Amino acid sequence: MVDEIIVQQMLQRKKSNMENQITREEIEHIAWLAHVELTEEEKKVFTEQFNRIIEFFEKIRKVDTEQVPPTYHVLDITNVERQDEVGKSLSQAETLKNASKKEDGFFKSPRIV
Amino acid sequence: MLSIFDRIGKTEGKIHAFVTLLREQSIEKAKKVDKLVKKPERLGLLSGVPIAIKDVICTNGVRTTCSSRMLKDYVPPYDATVVKKLNSEGAIIVGKTNMDEFAMGSTTETSFFGPTRNPWDLNKVPGGSSGGSAAAVISEDAPLALGSDTGGSIRCPASYCSIVGLKPTYGLVSRYGLISYANSLEQIGPFARTVEDCALLLSIISGHDDKDSTSANFSSKDYVSLLKKENEVKGLKVGVPHEFFGEGVDNDVKDTVWEAILKLESLGCTYNEVSISSVSYALAAYYIIAMSEASSNLARYDGLRYGFRQEKDEGDWATVYAKNRKEGFGAEVRRRIILGTYALSAGYYDQYYLKALKVRTILRRDFERAFKEFDVLVGPTMPLLPFDIGEKIDDPLTLYMCDVLTVPANLTGYPAMSIPCGFQDNLPVGMQIIGKPFNEETILRVARLFEQNTDYHLRRPNL
C-alpha cells in the first residue's frame, strides 16, 4: 500500500537524521489524509515553504521538557456535562437549508461504495 | 443610523471593512429604539448603538462567511451567545466585517473577498485577522466592534489601526457561535475607541455560558465601575520583559513604547525589567498547536451539510471532498491544515504537538512566576509598523513572525490589551498590556490612566 511505503520513508528519514526534510510525496500523502487537494504548482511551492516552516518548528526541540506535563487546556475543568434532557433542536428544514444537494429530506452525499 | 450608513458609504470604497452590510434591518431596529426611548426603563445598555461583528461569529439569518469561499453563502440558523447578549442590550449590528480567511493571518490579506486597507494609509495593511472590525471602528463606521483573537487577531489590528482591542482571559467570553480555528487558544473580544467603551462591551459579552463547555465558571463584572477606581493604580508594578524588545523589533517601535512606559512611571506606576526566557519558544509552540487544532476543526468542511460544493460529484467521496476543500479553501488555510495534519501524524505527534504542549506548560509556569512580582507586563503589541499590502504575503514564515509578541497571551490564556501609544511616520504604534487571569480590571485601569494623560486616542485618519 502506498501509505505504508510513505510512512516507512518518513521513519527512515528520522533515523538518518534528515527528519526535517519533507518531500513532495510526503506532502501528497498528508494532503490525502487531510482530504485536501493541491494543484501541481502548489505542491512545488508548498514543499519549499514547509521545509522552512518545519525547520522553524524544530526550535522547540532545544527546550528541556523532562518531567513536564503537557497543557491541553488552560482552564482547570474536565468533562463538563449537562443533564440528559431533550431540549430544542433545529427543524429538518433549518438543518437542510445550507446544503447544496438534498433529496426527500436527506443530505445527498457523493458515492460511498 | 442613517448618518452611520452615510459614513460607511463614504469609507467602504476606500477601506473595504465589511463583507455584509445590514442597512435595512439596522434602520428598522433604530426606529424601534426611537419609540422605546420614551420609556427609559425599557432601554438596554447599548440601545441603538451600532456595532460591527467579525464575520467569524454566527448571526442568525445573516450570512457568516469567515471571509472564505467555503462559507460564501452560509447562513447560520442560530446566534452566537455574544450576539444574543448584544441583541438583548439593544445593540444594532450594522454589518459583518472582513477578516483573514478562517482567522488565519495577521493582515486581512487572505480574505476571499479581497483585503481591507489601513485607514491611516490605504497602501498598508490594517493588521489581522480582525482587520475589518478595527478599520471600521477607527473610521467611525461604528463605535464598537467584536473580533476574535487566536494568536493576536484582535490586538494586532487594534495596534495597526490605533484603537483599543482586548483579548479576554480564556474562558471569560463564550465561544458558542464562534467558528473554530484553534479552540484552546481563541477568544472573542471587544474593540472600541476608548478604554471605557471597551470596558462596557466587555461587561456585556462576558460571563459563563452553559452552551460552551470551555467557558469558565465566572460571571461578568461591571468593568466600567471597576475601572474608575483610579487610586488603585498608584504604585502598580509594571514588568517589562527583555524578550519583548528583542532583535526582531523595530527601533522606532521600541522607542515609542519605552516613552509610554516612562509616561506610566510618571503617572505613579513603578517598572522593572524582567526576563521570561520561554517566550523565545512561544511562536513555534503556538503555530504547531494552532495548526494542529485547525486541521481538526476544519475537517468538518466537506460540502455535504453546508459549505462550498462543486456542481458535479466526480469520483468517489474522498476525491469529491478533497476537491470541494481545494476549491473552497485558500492557500493559507490549506497550508495550515496540511502542516497541522503533519504535526499530528504518527511518528511526528510526540516530536511536535506533544512537545509544543509541554513548552506551553513551561511558559505558563514562567508567567505565574512573573505575575507574583508584577501586576501587569507591558511591551509593544507588534514588532513592526504597518507594512505595505502585498509585501509579506508570499513568504508565510515572515508573516508568522509578526505574531511573536502576541502569542504568549494566547498560549497561557492570560488577558491582554493593545492601546494606542504613539505614531511614527504617521503610522500607529500600539502598547500591549498583559494582566492576570480574570483580572481585566487592572489592565483597564492602567490603560485608562495612560489614555487620560495622552491624546493618541483622539486622533483620526484623514479619510
Low-confidence stretches of chain A: none
CATH class of chain B: Alpha Beta
What portion of the residues of chain A fall into strands of 2 or more residues?
Answer: under 5%
Largest sheet of chain B: 11 strands, mixed
What is the global morphology of chain B?
A: globular
Query: Termini of chain B, distance in Å?
Result: 20 Å
- What's the architecture of chain B in CATH terms? Alpha-Beta Complex
Please provide the count of β strands of chain B: 11
Number of domains of chain B: 1
Instruction: Specify the helix fraction band of chain A.
Output: 40-55%
Biggest sheet details of chain A: 2 strands, antiparallel
Spatial ordering of strands, largest sheet of chain A: 1-2
What can you tell me about this protein's structure?
The complex is a heterodimer of chains A (113) and B (463). Chain A has 113 residues and is mainly alpha-helical. Chain A has a domain at 2-62. Chain A is built from four helices and two strands; from the N terminus they run ααααββ. Chain A has helices at 2-15, 24-33, 40-57, 92-96, and strands at 102-103, 106-107. A two-stranded antiparallel sheet of chain A has the order 1-2. In chain A, a hairpin with a 2-residue loop joins β1 (102-103) and β2. The longest helix of chain A has 18 residues, at 40-57. The model of chain A has no long low-confidence stretch (mean pLDDT 86). Chain B is an alpha/beta fold. Chain B has a single domain (2-278, 365-458), classed as Alpha-Beta Complex (Amidase signature (AS) enzymes). In chain B, 37% of the residues lie in helices and 14% in strands. In chain B, β7 (237-241), α8 and β8 form a beta-alpha-beta unit. In chain B, α4 (131-138) packs parallel to α5 (155-161). The longest helix of chain B is centred in the C-terminal third of the chain and has 24 residues, at 350-373. The radius of gyration of chain B is 21 Å and the shape is globular. The two termini of chain B are 20 Å apart. The interface between A and B is large, with 58 and 70 residues.
